Structure formats: C-alpha cells, structure tokens
Amino acid sequence: MIRILGKSSSINVRKVLWLCVELGVSFEQEEWGSGHRSTQEPGFLALNPNAMVPVLLDGALVLWESNTICRYLAARQARHDLLPAAPAERARVEQWMDWQATELNNSWRYAFMGLVRNSPEHQDPALLASSMANWHRHMRMLEEQLSRTGAFAAGAQLTLADIVLGLSAHRWLSAPMERPDLPAVRAYYERLCERPGFRTHGANGMP
C-alpha cells in the first residue's frame, strides 16, 4: 500500500488523494505540514529536502512534486485515459498540468494569502488588486479552453489536467472576492462535482 505524507487541507495533497479515488488505489495518509507534524523534521527532510507536501512512498520509491506524483500514479495503473500514451495527446494533457503549476498558481499566491489565509504580510491593497486581476486573467484562459472543448481541459474526457485544474477552479470559486462570470468554468466545476473523489477531496469546504 502506498503512503501519502501531507495534510488534508493542502491543495497539492488533495489532488493526489482525489486521483487515488479515481484510480481505485488504496493508500495510507499521514498528516504532515503546518498544524501537524513538522516537515522540518530530519526524517521528512531526508525524503523531501524542499520540506513541502505531498510526498509519496511506494515501496522503496520516494516521490515529491504533486503533478509528478499524479503522472506516476496514472502510469502505474496504466490509465491511458487519464495520461495518454501517444506523445501528442500526452503533451496536450501535460501542457495544462504544467500551466497550472507554474502560471496559474503563481497568479493567485498573494491574493490567496491575503484574502483566505489573512496573512498580515499580504494586505497591500495594490498588490492584492494586482494578484486578483492576474488570477482572473488566467482563469479567463481556462474559460476559453473549456469553451472550445465543451467538457474538460484537454478534450472530451477527464484527464490528469482536470485533476490538477479542478482544485484550482475550486480555489478560485471559493475565495472571498468578486470574480467575473465565467460560465464554462462554472459548468466545468459542476461536472467535476459529479465525481465522488472530487466531492471528498476537492469541493469539500476547504479553499
């Protein structure tokens, strides 16, 4: 049985937990991170020198970086519907995964820390406004893509791109801020909410 080290409130841990439900993979979860066991403990740092969650343990294999873990799990279970084997189809999925991890996530960091985490260091009005505007701009990119596919990020069926983007869509929709009306994103979110794993680990009341 695989072990997942990371707190249940972490957006990156939750995407891995949701994927495990989609895959039907049994796992044990250990709560690590703020409010739980410290990721600064030497034992954890030996697994991930970044001191971040999640960490996946599968026998002797140790993996960190949530999107890499998702790729590994899908390949481990030979789920080519989620991560295609054909190079072009796989690249279309992975480009949206990489966009989520680099561009989209970076757009909301300041706003999320200020609005949701209420961090005193993230309360500058101009920086909050700039971060929210950038967040909305990136979500409009997702809106355009979903309008083209009419269903999911990489096409007509759910893929790993949606596992990672679904948590991001939930965060955007749940943040206490005004947001533009993006009907394709809203419909996408409603489709994801039909999936038990997303309801348990995505749309579960946590931002």
TrEMBL record:
Occurrences of domain GST N-terminal (ranges): 1-81
Database matches in CDD domains: GST_C_2, GST_N_2
GO molecular function: transferase activity
SUPFAM superfamilies: GST C-terminal domain-like, Thioredoxin-like
Protein name: Glutathione S-transferase
Superkingdom of this protein's organism: Bacteria
Family label: Belongs to the GST superfamily.
Domain GST C-terminal: 86-207
Keyword vocabulary terms for this entry: Transferase
InterPro entries recorded: Glutathione-S-Trfase_C-like, Glutathione-S-Trfase_C_sf, Glutathione_S-Trfase, Glutathione_S-Trfase_N, Thioredoxin-like_sf
Pfam families: GST_C_2, GST_N
Signal peptide: none
